[in-house]
Backbone:
């Protein structure tokens, strides 16, 4: 009698909503589409503007709809956003501001893992990347960079401990 060896069982990958579902779901919120397609002003990408109190921002709790049903105008806006800001970070956005910040964040750091994108606000990640590259000699900015690094590392560790 022969025994068949079964391949080892793999756990399924965690479910992640598509970028279309995320963008469409966020556009269903009131006043979400206003000014969304206007380019980001360089002033908006300053660390002081991204983190007004110098503290990491909390990632909002929001679940995208599984199958968004959209009116024609919202569908066209969703397609326009996906075409203009084509990046994998859109699927991890949880508020309209994160949609806008996804492109500069992806341009600065295209290799962030999904666990970090799902737990840390894009403004916090972008501020960390700006401080890494542009840094400066200011002691307060260096302390903020260290604090943001620790915050992101803590988010990664908690994900590894609680998958």
Residues:
């Amino acid at each position: 009698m022969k025994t068949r060896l079964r391949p080892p069982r793999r756990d399924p990958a965690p479910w992640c909503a598509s970028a279309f579902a995320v963008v469409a779901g966020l556009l269903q919120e009131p006043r979400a589409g206003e000014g969304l397609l206007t380019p980001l002003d360089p002033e908006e990408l300053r660390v002081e503007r991204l983190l007004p109190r110098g503290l990491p921002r909390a990632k909002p709790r929001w679940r995208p709809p599984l199958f968004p049903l959209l009116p024609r105008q919202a569908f066209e806006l969703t397609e326009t956003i996906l075409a203009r800001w084509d990046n994998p970070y859109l699927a991890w956005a949880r508020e309209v501001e994160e949609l806008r910040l996804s492109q500069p964040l992806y341009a600065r750091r295209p290799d962030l893992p999904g666990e970090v994108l799902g737990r840390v606000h894009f403004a916090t990640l972008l501020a960390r990347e700006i401080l890494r590259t542009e840094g400066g000699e200011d002691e307060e900015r260096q302390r903020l960079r260290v604090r943001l690094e620790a915050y992101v590392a803590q988010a990664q560790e908690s994900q590894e401990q609680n998958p």
The chain has a mean pLDDT of 84. The helical segments are 19-27, 47-50, 72-84, 96-108, 114-119, 122-134, 139-161. The chain has one domain: 19-161.
